[in-house]
TrEMBL record:
Keywords: Membrane, Transmembrane, Transmembrane helix
Protein known as: Uncharacterized protein
Transmembrane annotation, as ranges: 12-35, 47-66, 121-143, 163-183, 204-227, 233-254
Lineage, top ranks: Eukaryota, Fungi, Dikarya, Basidiomycota, Agaricomycotina
């Protein structure tokens, strides 16, 4: 049974508001890590990630605000066409929000891949090519949205092909780039594993990248499925994807920061742990104690002796010759 447009837009506002709350919560934690915790550890503030965090949060907040305005106008005027008229500024703004959020998320992922491969441009040529294709598709989507005519909304025939291409490029770029990052980290981890003691931090990095990348790619794939099915549920999946993109970006920063904090605490406890003097070996207690506790060393010397039997008497020959050690 198809989902009516009214119910779809109500569910869109409800679910996007929920994910916005999660998005803003992770944004607050992320800002705390970037602005407070990093300087306290002597690390520099990464202003690029700080700017991306704030921009993504603003885009997510704007998207939900526009959705709220649209719902209020529909229910006060009774004009349901506002939900599907893509030429209205509210719907145009939402299309811009979705496109910008995806482009920013893909660009940050490509940047991370560039850093992991030691700033080698050759490693990110495929990802960069896909990202430039996404930029072209986003521009085309804006142009067609302005000239879209009909009551199908985002599911209009002239828009379905463009939005499907946009989501397909996002899924492809995310899968490819995340795989390249994981492959690079796994190779480095394998080459130095024999020299590592304790937990391998590179394996933790692989897990964080894989989990966040999988969540992002799965959300984009679900949105792509609703676009291809031309279902009104696309409003729900597309709006939720705006928030999930920012959440995935924030979670990577938060989880790496949490891992660094846990390791710093363990190192501090190990360095500040008191070691009882009785557990130290004699050589570690100081030269004075070593001198007092020095033990006498005995050196046994063996010597081959040729005995002249002519120099012994008969009694001595018949008796048992006992040799006593020196000093006995």
């Amino acid at each position: 049974m198809p989902l009516p447009i009214i119910q779809a837009r109500i569910f869109t506002f409800m679910f996007s508001s929920f994910f916005l709350g999660v998005h803003l919560t992770t944004t607050t934690i992320c800002l705390w890590a970037l602005l407070v915790r990093n300087p306290s550890r002597g690390r520099k503030i990464h202003y690029g990630f700080l700017a991306v965090t704030l921009v993504m949060a603003c885009i997510g907040s704007l998207d939900v605000s526009v959705d709220a305005v649209t719902n209020v106008r529909v229910w006060t005027t009774g004009d349901i066409k506002l939900f599907t008229d893509e030429t209205q500024w509210m719907n145009l703004t939402k299309n811009i929000d979705i496109s910008l959020q995806l482009l920013i998320g893909d660009a940050v992922l490509t940047y991370r891949c560039w850093i992991v491969y030691e700033r080698k441009w050759l490693a990110i040529i495929p990802s960069l090519t896909i990202w430039l294709g996404s930029v072209s598709v986003a521009i085309l989507l804006m142009v067609r949205s302005v000239t879209a005519i009909g009551s199908s909304g985002i599911n209009a025939p002239s828009l379905v092909s463009v939005t499907a291409a946009q989501q397909a490029l996002t899924v492809g770029l995310n899968t490819l780039t995340s795989s390249l990052i994981i492959l690079r980290i796994w190779k480095v981890s394998s080459s130095i594993r024999m020299y590592m003691v304790g937990q391998d931090r590179l394996l933790y990095a692989i897990r964080v990248i894989a989990e966040s990348g999988s969540m992002y790619a799965m959300s984009a794939a679900i949105c792509l499925a609703t676009i291809l099915a031309r279902s009104t549920a696309v409003y729900i999946t597309a709006d939720c994807l705006v928030q999930i993109t920012g959440i995935c970006f924030n979670l990577i920063i938060i989880r790496f920061d949490h891992n660094l904090a846990s390791r710093s605490q363990v190192d501090t406890e190990l360095n500040s742990r008191a070691i009882p003097l009785s557990s130290l070996s004699p050589s570690a207690r100081g030269m004075s104690n070593t001198a007092r506790s020095a033990r006498c060393m005995e050196i046994a010397v063996s010597q081959d002796t040729e005995v002249d039997n002519g120099s012994f008497t008969a009694e001595m020959k018949a008796g048992e010759l006992k040799l006593q050690p020196l000093g006995a």
